[in-house]
Amino acid sequence: MPPTPRRLGAGPCTEAVPAGRGPAAPPTRSPRPRRGVTVRRGGRSSSPYDAFNLGGHVGDDPDDVAANRARLARELRVDPAALVWMDQVHGTDVVVVDGPQTGPPPQADALVTATPGLVLCVLVADCVPVLLADPVAGVVAAVHAGREGVRQGVVPAALAAMARLGSRPGDVQALLGPAVCGADYEVPRAMQVQVARVAKDAAVTSRTGTPALDLRAGLTQVLRAGGVGQVVQDPRCTVEDRRLFSHRRDGVTGRQAGVVWLEA
Ligand SMILES: [Zn+2]
């Protein structure tokens, strides 16, 4: 069985993302990777963070964020201490984790683990949550890839860290979660050119005919160039789908999370 996104419990706060379809993985005793993406509803936060905001850096009441994170753990049926967060800075630093997080989250834009039971979390509200899973080697990664992440190469950095843990790119299955679509991501021409130097497929036209970026198209190109065997896109656009947080649409708002883990 390929790793399929887990049905995230019966509660209203999360929903499963579309399952990846691809060739069956060879028989393996590695723990099974699971993936998912949260949505807005079902949480405790008040407007403009309503309701299932998981971001602790956006001005929301810390008690509400803590309650929402505890709920996420319950939905995933893991200990709250198993959730691993990062302080995302639009860079390329990758942190390999092998135990529960103690102290403040590290400044990084990618988390990698081969340790079952640790839930890697990436916070987003238009940027792309990239969830990587190698079911053969038993290695997973959660990557925060916005425009700067694509330009600077955060995904190749994460793949390299996975390889150091024994993962082969051909065995990696990538899920690109909900993000701003190309039609809604107008940028200055110079910015588009910068990103297109790394991934030309990212250069698209907005719905008003101006230069724009389709980050998921660019990331798909980057992943395929890196030899990744399977790339699946969640088609949802954060700007258009009001069930998701969007910074571009709403300004001050919450963050949903992409999560990936190896079943303990
Ligand atoms: Zn859109």
From TrEMBL:
Specify whether Nucleotidyltransferase is a keyword of the entry.
no
Specify where the region named Disordered lies, as residue ranges: 1-60
In terms of InterPro entries, this protein maps to: Cu_polyphenol_OxRdtase, Cu_polyphenol_OxRdtase_sf, Cytotoxic_necrot_fac-like_cat
- Report the function annotation for this chain: Purine nucleoside enzyme that catalyzes the phosphorolysis of adenosine and inosine nucleosides, yielding D-ribose 1-phosphate and the respective free bases, adenine and hypoxanthine. Also catalyzes the phosphorolysis of S-methyl-5'-thioadenosine into adenine and S-methyl-5-thio-alpha-D-ribose 1-phosphate. Also has adenosine deaminase activity.
Biological source species: Klenkia terrae
Q: Name one Pfam family in it.
A: Cu-oxidase_4
Kindly give the CDD domains that the UniProt entry links to this protein. Answer: YfiH (cd16833)
Spell out the Basic residues composition-biased ranges. Answer: 31-43
Protein name per its UniProtKB record: Purine nucleoside phosphorylase
What is the similarity comment for this entry? Belongs to the purine nucleoside phosphorylase YfiH/LACC1 family.
Ordered alphabetically, the record's keywords are:
Copper, Hydrolase, Metal-binding, Transferase, Zinc
- Which reaction(s) does its UniProt entry say it catalyses? inosine + phosphate = alpha-D-ribose 1-phosphate + hypoxanthine; adenosine + phosphate = alpha-D-ribose 1-phosphate + adenine; S-methyl-5'-thioadenosine + phosphate = 5-(methylsulfanyl)-alpha-D-ribose 1-phosphate + adenine; adenosine + H2O + H(+) = inosine + NH4(+)
